[in-house]
Description:
The structure is a homodimer. Chain A is α/β, with parallel strands linked by helices.
Amino acid sequence: MNKMLLYLILLLIHHTALGQEASKVPLPSPAQLAWQDAELVAVFHYDLHVFDGKIYNQSQNRINPIADHNIFKPEALDTDQWIRAVKDMGAKIAILTATHETGFALYQSDVNPYSLKAVNWKGGKGDIVRDFVSSCRKYGIKPGIYIGIRWNAFYGIHDFKVQGEGEFSKNRQEHYNRICEGMVEELCSRYGDLAIVWFDGGAHGPEQGGPDVLSIFEKYQPNGLFYHNLQRADIRWGGSETGTVPYPCWGTYNAPSWFARRGDDIGFKPLKYGFPDGQYYMPAMSDAPLRGYDGGHEWFWEPDDEKHIYPLENLMEMYYKSVGRNSTLILGLTPDPRGLLPEADVKRLQEWGEEIDRRFSQPIARTSGKGKQLILSLEQPQSINHLIIEEDIAQGERVRKFVVEGKDDDKWLTLYEGSSIGHKHIARFATQKVSEVKLSVEEAVMEPVIQNLAVTYIE
Amino acid sequence: MNKMLLYLILLLIHHTALGQEASKVPLPSPAQLAWQDAELVAVFHYDLHVFDGKIYNQSQNRINPIADHNIFKPEALDTDQWIRAVKDMGAKIAILTATHETGFALYQSDVNPYSLKAVNWKGGKGDIVRDFVSSCRKYGIKPGIYIGIRWNAFYGIHDFKVQGEGEFSKNRQEHYNRICEGMVEELCSRYGDLAIVWFDGGAHGPEQGGPDVLSIFEKYQPNGLFYHNLQRADIRWGGSETGTVPYPCWGTYNAPSWFARRGDDIGFKPLKYGFPDGQYYMPAMSDAPLRGYDGGHEWFWEPDDEKHIYPLENLMEMYYKSVGRNSTLILGLTPDPRGLLPEADVKRLQEWGEEIDRRFSQPIARTSGKGKQLILSLEQPQSINHLIIEEDIAQGERVRKFVVEGKDDDKWLTLYEGSSIGHKHIARFATQKVSEVKLSVEEAVMEPVIQNLAVTYIE
């Protein structure tokens, strides 16, 4: 009950001008906290064209309906296998494309006829969203759902708009908007609490001639992340699909939705860096497909594409430049036509999870504390080359500038200087033997609350 | 075997220039013969909007998708009840709209997702086409299927064309054409022999940017009637939806498809009258909805519409002006949201069937014969006021002009003068007491073959 009370107070503070003055920095919602705590998220892309045996061409896929939807028959579908791989990788949230750009829905939709009801697979009774969510719950992974409404090759939707002119087009736009709202209601109401509902490419709202999906989300998923429309974006895109963000990457933004001011006119820099004094809590995510190596960039399974699976070292670099920079890393995974995550991908995710664990699960020393200075004493002088610093972001991102020094014998040496910490900052530096480590916060908006200061040595 | 041989010979004659010279008049195919022998045909219109509780507005229905396809739930559906009414009415062929202008398919389509698979009714397993065909076979009625591809409010098809411009529209047109071909293949291959496959508003062909449905029909339904595209129309529209044609209504036409030369540029007169010297056998049909009385014209069920059911006498007039003029009468029947033909409609059809039977099943006298003159002798002088004359149209429509006289005592009186006979001609005239009736063919292309000359008296 005390925790609940604290949440309510925090929410109150977060949502009132008085509160914002009181806290001086915006505070995350419980969903945003859970999102950042997850650190790693998997997003599964699965759609009709996985089964067509061809190289995926997104721009063509958007304007060319799949000839025969009965190619969809994942005979060995096993979402448990998918989610075990998520678990192995160390992610805490997994997202599935309930619909993507073909318009085909991976569940039993009552409003969109172009769904698993239409195919012969499982006698038209398949529900991969349900399978997926069940597997997530079984393995303690939080499920999220991705909904594509911006493109629909089947129905004839291009960049939110029904093709055509005149009254017919207007009527079909209305119809499509109702289908979208209906799907959002189905997906938000049938499968329990969702960590996130992700509208890819955003969701048009009624003021743009689109459906009203936000109010439906708010009704059924008050505890979830909404991503995103012009009014609301609980997270922001980090400005690339490289799985990385630059440094510093502030967890706050200067508008309630980054989507209202997109890269088209202002460039992606605001998305990448955020605004340290932004009034809105909106951490950046870093997304990339696992099959993004060496010229590849495959959100969907394609034949003979194992060569594009990132090597372990690249994934670790990605980890440093996302999770280590206050950004949640979203990795795109690609089930194949059998309905399984391919063995090579599973193996790489295992290796990666083990490597993250090997590097960070047992630091040499760690501490926590409040205030402008924090000392971490080692039991004996040791070589270190990594720092892990975490603010208690439930209380907001407060640090603006810091320096970390190490004591070598009696001399304090500067190990690292930084600005943003936020949920987590991982710093690498030249190996140094130290007996003590001192974090000095040089600038902060309020009293710094460091929930973790750790050092380690990684070969 | 002799009959089969005869058919083959007739077909050969029909399809060769030599044969046409030999016979001088075009001959009907077996399917056309069966069609004309049926005399009465029922066409059932059933679609999503039957369930919307609103007055049907065809032009709106074409450009306004149905908001929720799950309104479709005919809880008491009983196609046996439909077909018993067809039987009662005396029709021999019954046609069902497998798809109409919403685009919704009343069966388990693998190619069109907008079908009974999409609705919750019967767990998405309903197949009304199958039910319908089974009921037809059970009651000895020949089934036909109506396919609408010219309009599709769901998919965005207007007058055959996908809405929109550019490559996306071109791709969706291709996709839609493949859906149409797929549906035609499903409907022509799954349900056994069909009396007719009816493309309402015609079918665009590949040369017009449409699907190639004719070759699919010809592959699977070599014994059926094809209605219709630019290349082929085995019957012709009679030029109105009043259930009547004018007189004379010749069974032949001057082109292989009337659809290639439509009313738009030449008016409907050629459709109504036909061409006595036309090289193509193509009898006219007369279509009308049962609910077409007093300003009504309802091909679909609507609430509170019983007032538009034609009175018996109007149906009899329609019968005289269609069946009695060498034209097959197609009556539109409207199952309701329960899935039943309404009681009032059933009752009227029963009355009508009984009345046709009462009037024509037991003529006072009848005969048949070849040649320019045919005498029908009555057992005793009797009052008559109806003539029924039928050519053996398996041998072509040969008569061009005739007169019928009646012998009153020793005097021959002209009872009736006419031109076309064809499958059947029913003539009404002032009551006359006669002892003999004489049919004199004044003009004919070949030797007249009269398979029935009957007289009767109807109060």
